[in-house]
Design goal:
about 0% strand
């Protein structure tokens, strides 16, 4: 830890005296000093580097913060995929358009947060870019949306929040014609009939009480909490919460589908295929 702090102080000192060094590629994968600091979780260093970039660059802070490595990932992509909301806030608030920069897989930082199940980082980026911009960022080139990838990863709590924010996604299909409901149906262990429990495990499963999922209030202010707080705040195995989250997610999808189909004027009654 001491060595890491010394390295961070040295790095900041070098950039203060030679600001153009922040665009230099420091690794074979094309990472800059900011990429490395984000990867290492050095929050203070990231904050210092962003301030240096904002105050010393001649080509614009946004252009520097958009510098990507060989995989097309910007520092914000890395911060979003690790779920560090302090680093996400520090970078994204310099320019909200950074939330929509795409890597070589056509994934935005907004998408990356969902892909890795980082709920708090996702909600933070959503609050920064807003719903309208979020609709431009929530899909990648293979047609999969943030709802597809969160269901595939069994991040049902985050899937529930996404449906609350972007109800239309329950109808979107990828290039293979797969909808979020198809993905849910392919998760038999998430259904009670697919959980083959015996003995005391079945008793525990049936007696476990789990709170109903509720849509979270999204704030623009960063919150000092980990993305796993919802899970850790209860005293039962994660597998049981996954099953219960699945139940509430399925309930939410049914409610959305029912509501839209009752409205004959709804523009979202048909499954939307990705546009090329």
């Amino acid at each position: 830890m001491i060595w890491a702090c010394c390295e961070s102080s040295l790095l900041v000192g070098v950039l203060l005296h030679n600001p153009t060094a922040y665009i230099a590629r420091a690794t074979k994968s094309g990472d800059t000093a900011l990429h490395i600091a984000v990867n290492d979780g050095q929050e203070d260093t990231v904050r210092a580097l962003v301030e240096i970039i904002s105050s010393h660059t001649n080509i614009g802070a946004t252009e520097v913060l958009k510098i990507a490595n060989k995989r097309g990932n910007t520092p914000l992509h890395l911060a979003a995929s690790t779920g560090n909301i302090k680093m996400c806030s520090c970078i994204a608030r310099k320019d909200p358009s950074l939330v929509g920069v795409r890597n070589h897989d056509s994934e935005t930082p907004f998408f990356s947060a969902a892909l890795h199940g980082k709920k708090d980082a996702f909600l933070l980026l959503h609050s920064i870019c807003g719903v309208d911009k979020g609709r431009l960022y929530y899909r990648r080139k293979d047609g999969e949306t943030i709802l597809h990838v969160t269901i595939s990863g069994e991040y049902f709590d985050l899937s529930f929040q996404i449906i609350h924010l972007y109800e239309e996604l329950v109808y979107y299909v990828d290039h293979r014609g797969t909808s979020p409901l198809h993905l849910l149906a392919s998760k038999p262990t998430a259904f009670r009939s697919g959980c083959h429990l015996g003995g005391y495990r079945k008793i525990i499963y049936n007696c476990t009480f789990v709170e109903e999922l509720r849509a979270e209030e999204v704030s623009n202010a960063p919150q000092d909490q980990s993305s796993d707080q919802h899970v850790d705040s209860h005293c039962y195995p994660k597998s049981y919460e996954t099953c219960c989250n699945f139940f509430w997610l399925l309930k939410k999808i049914v409610e959305v589908v029912t509501k839209l189909y009752k409205d004959p004027k709804s523009p979202d009654r048909r499954c939307r295929k990705p546009t090329r």
